[in-house]
Specification:
The protein has 346 residues and is α/β, with parallel strands linked by helices. The protein has ten helices and 18 strands. α3 packs across α4 and α3 packs across α8.
Length: 346
Amino acid sequence: MLPNGGPSMLSGTCIEPGRFMLVDRPMPVDAPTGWVLVDIGAVGLCGTDYHIFAGKHPYLEYPRVIGHELGGTVAQSQSGWAQGQRVVINPYLSCGTCRACTRGKPNCCTSISVLGVHRDGGMCARIAVPEGNLYKADGLTLHEAAMVEFLAIGAHAVRRSDLTAGDRVLVTGAGPIGLGTALFARLAGAEVHLQDASAARLQAAKRNFDFDDLHGITTPLLTGKLADGFDVVFDATGNAGAMQAGFANVAHGGTYVLVSVVKDDIRFNDAEFHKREMRLVGSRNATEQDFQTVMDAIRAGHIVGDKIVSAVIGLTDLASRFPDLANDRENLTKVIVDFAIVGAQA
């Protein structure tokens, strides 16, 4: 309890770059009209969280409660939602009135507010969110619910690419976002190749998901049957140099999808771009359609969540382990913070 007598909860908070703590904060007990209280059950740690810890996120003010990969249950019946309903939270809060929103692209809202980035997130026992940002997670575990958001980013990128069955696809960057992209490209019928500087990540993709066409960055890629390039190339590296190098891997008539984002300028040769009649596509966040695509794939057994999870920890262990987790990302696909392991309420 807080000094004023109200209920409290521990919230995983980046106080400043390099400093992560569990902070006692008020627990919400009611929500505005059209919003719903959700008790958090599991939270996935993401590259964004590690960037926040490292001080490398461009759109953030400290201190910030992190957490945007969220699975939970409705805390109390309201706004047509039943208490105990398991839900996935879409962390992208949009205005609903800008041109992007009115054209069905709330993921590109001009005033988007992302939980755990622009506003405090869900690394806490309870959070209030707009009812439109909740999706029923029937048939999913809480761990699976916490993985839907990052997989939806890959599903959205694949949908944006317009790839077709039989396309030869290269995903550069075999981290969680790249892996999700590769999984949904394969589900769409593509021949999927993965490229990464980390042999450990490539071997994990092979061991856990049976990807066989694996490529490092020190040997030539466009040789033999790959000499003509790839019909669709996805970049999920978050590295400006890799993003620029990726243009050369796109086949004539192909598509280049930038899933990752960097603050740097990206340069390419216009003559080569036009000669190939290349399509350059940006992919940002995800929409409800992509969340539903991911949940359907999990329910159907096409995506096995247990193979994605590298570690499961409790909230009270997070502060002590966060620096090591941030430094060991090469060997971690997805870390889940499970609120049932240690109670999150102070």
